[in-house]
Amino acid sequence: MAAVTISADARQDPRRWWALGALVASMLVLGFDMTILNVALPTMAARLGASTGEQQWMADAYVVVFAALMLPAGLLGDRFGRRRMLMAGLGIFLAGSLLGTLADDVSLVVVARAVMGMGGALVMPLAMAVLPALFEPGERTRAVGIVSAASALGAPLGPIIGGWLLDHFWWGSIFLINIPMAAIGIAACLFLLPETRDPASPRVDAVSTALTAAGLGGLIFGIIEAPGRGWGDPLVLGTLAGGAVSLTALVLRERRMTRPMLDLPLLRDRAFFLNAMAATLVMFVLSGLMFVLPQYLQAILGNDAFGTGLRMLPMMGGLLVAAKGAEPVVRRFGARAVISGGLVVLAFAAILGSRTGIDSGYGFTALWLSVAGLGFGFAVVPSMDSALGALPVERAGSGSGLLMTVRQVGSALGIALLGSLLAAAYTDRLDTEGLPGPAADAAGDSVVAAHGIAERMGVPGLVASADS
After folding, report:
1. H helices within 169-295, ranges in order?
2. Nearest partner of 442 among 107, 52, 55, judged by Cα
3. pTM higher than the cut 0.85
4. Smallest Cα–Cα separation from 372: which of 425, 413, 313, 415?
5. How far apart are CA 29 and CA 257, in angstroms?
6. Three-state DSSP state, 14
7. Count of structural domains, the chain
8. Is residue 2 part of a domain?
9. 8 A C-beta contact, residue 91 and residue 119
10. Helices (H) and strands (E) in the chain, counts
């Protein structure tokens, strides 16, 4: 068994709680980024003329790169030092954020998001990977809750701060807040976080990494492009088939390797597998919701970016309450019961959300958002803790990388599938009769575009059709 360069005695070092502060700063950065972009998408669509599909790419460019690089990121941390690679990830994330502040078209935003995804792929798994080495099982649930709450704290603050920036500055300023936060995270890691590594971990497999990127990218591309091109379009079918073939080849290759990058034996562990799938399901629902919700709050209810951020707080509040209360509830009822209950609550919230219409009012929306936050918190915190608890310490990097990868796959699929369903339903219901061809095509791109065309051409019926 390979040794990790931090001893068990370090788990009793009082500095471990200061080290946790470095992880909190890192997770705040990712929390900010996720929700700032979501609340900004309607504004960016109006300023850049982005269609629904292009908005999906702005969101999913980050997630696809994130998921594709998650596994090699865990191995890089195991091999070269988790603190070192965590700092490198924050630096890359900072560079991508800087590019985002300077971007002036959709393509540059997508590139900036992809660069940020590279940095995030290093930050997320390694922030979690050091927890088993720092904390005993009795403390680990609390530590996981704190790190998860840090990401959750960034989530509600992100839309509020980002909304204020959008109301007062250019849209690129939404990336600006990441820069000082990333710098603080780098400094905290440098001075507070102990180094851990597993020098015997396998080398990064470039072929497997490429197959992962091609597989996920092909599937996501096909799903996003299908509503506009049609599911029978040769390009859509080709990319979906190519993605499936790439992922199949990845699994077959990893099974034959002596030291695989994809730690498939971990998936045979029932505890790890079930908890990872629960966390993935939650990310599927929440990511899709976070993509669709700002469109409703801004384009249909007419809130500005700052108001949208404020109106998303009930979900974040429910999440924080559940994250804080998960530990004692798990002690009393057990992790399996709490996770199952959280998923049921989340499903109930999704049912309520599906009944939301233009006349529902914000009170109803706030109700099911609060319920969704509670379900998310009670499902994700104990499932993450239980999955991490099933990992041997020396496989913490690769194991947490696998865990976070499947979660991000769920996130990418949530944005792609629910966004595509939204685009297809919107296009089917939109009444563009009487509009010139170019105007009708532009109105079909997004609700924001339809509102703009209706205002310019004096067609109030188009607004009602788009909002329905």
Report:
1. 178-192, 206-229, 234-256, 270-294
2. 52
3. no
4. 313
5. 36
6. coil
7. 3
8. no
9. yes
10. 18, 0
Question: 209 and 143, same structural domain?
Answer: no
Q: Which residue has the tokens 């310490």?
A: 393
Q: How far apart are CA 10 and CA 2, in angstroms?
A: 18
Give the list of residues 6+ apart from residue 328 with CB closer than 8 angstroms, or none: none
- Neighbour-count burial for 342-359, b at 16+ CB within 10 Å, e otherwise: bbebbeebbebbeebeee
| pLDDT, tens digit (0-9, with 9 covering 90-100), for 55-90 | 888 888 888 888 778 778 777 887 888 888 989 999
- 395 alpha carbon, distance to own chain's centre: 24
Residues 212 and 278 in one domain: no
Residue 65 belongs to what domain range? 8-204+261-429
Distance of CA 449 to the CA centre of its chain: 26
Rounded to whole angstroms, how far apart are CA atoms 216 and 66? 11
**Mind giving me the DSSP string for 319-338?**
HHHHHHHHHHHHHHH-HHHH
| Residue 225: both structure tokens together | 């492009």
Instruction: Identify whether 255 is part of a domain.
Output: yes
Kindly state whether residues 39 and 121 are assigned to the same domain. yes
Closest CA to 51 of 170, 169, 225, 181: 225
- Which tens digits make up the pLDDT trace of 302-356? 788 788 888 888 887 888 788 778 888 888 888 889 999 999 999 899 888 888 8
Instruction: Please name which of 118, 114, 129, 29 lies closest in space to residue 77, comparing C-alpha atoms.
Output: 129
What are phi and psi for residue 94, nearest 5 degrees?
-60, -45
Q: Which two tokens stand for residue 160?
A: 């509020």
State residue 420 phi and psi, 5-degree precision: -70, -40
